[in-house]
Amino acid sequence: MPAAATAAEKMDTIYRRQRFIYDATRRYYLFGRDRLLGSLKPPLGGSVLEIGCGTARNLIRAAKRYPDARFHGLDVSEAMLRSARASVARHDLASRIALGCGDATAFQPAELFGRDGFDRVFISYALSMIPPWQDALKQAAACLTPRGELHIVDFGDFEQYPALLRRVQLAWLRRFSVVPIPGMQGKIEALAEEMGLSATAEKLYGGYAVKIRLQHR
Ligand SMILES: C[S@@+](CC[C@H](N)C(=O)[O-])C[C@H]1O[C@@H](n2cnc3c(N)ncnc32)[C@H](O)[C@@H]1O
Question: How far is the CA of 129 from the centre of ligand 1 (A)?
Fold first, then answer.
């Protein structure tokens, strides 16, 4: 892959074939996603956006869990979105889940979805695939309604894991262009402070994952 490949080219290359086995395989290592969905709790009639929605696995589960809310999903990979569209249609949820193609670091929610703000925005295991992840986080926070919440789950620092296991895990993730953000919790808390947001973080499974919620003070 050329060094200057865009995020879209890079993700399409990774997921062109992976997308067919994505949901079946990722259930074994993308932990904490359902916990995040359980804590979303959008208001009645509320709007929810997932950034980096992949196959729409999370959106479909969330739409079934919160039948009054409207869902929106954004991904930079057209290949992933093909799987997402097919899956949403299979679950008969096309009227409640809108999908759009865009880069997490620079997208216009009004152009993609006809609205500027969302009551809940979430990012599940996508920040660790986005080198300028801080820009994605700021963009996500900018999409919140005044009472909105931004929920994040991603790989943690694996603190309680033996060093060898940690090295093997990180090397394996790199093969998929996944680079867990070292000290992610502290870095996100610092960014939240800069943006005037409060942050509530939870370490999951001995540091395997971190779940963070940001909201206006
Ligand atoms: C590991 S998958 C996670 C998918 C889904 N959120 C989940 O929890 O199953 C990461 C997703 O982020 C997308 N992604 C990576 N870089 C992106 C970017 N710059 N903008 C938008 N999406 C991006 C990828 O195409 C992929 O679908």
Answer: 7
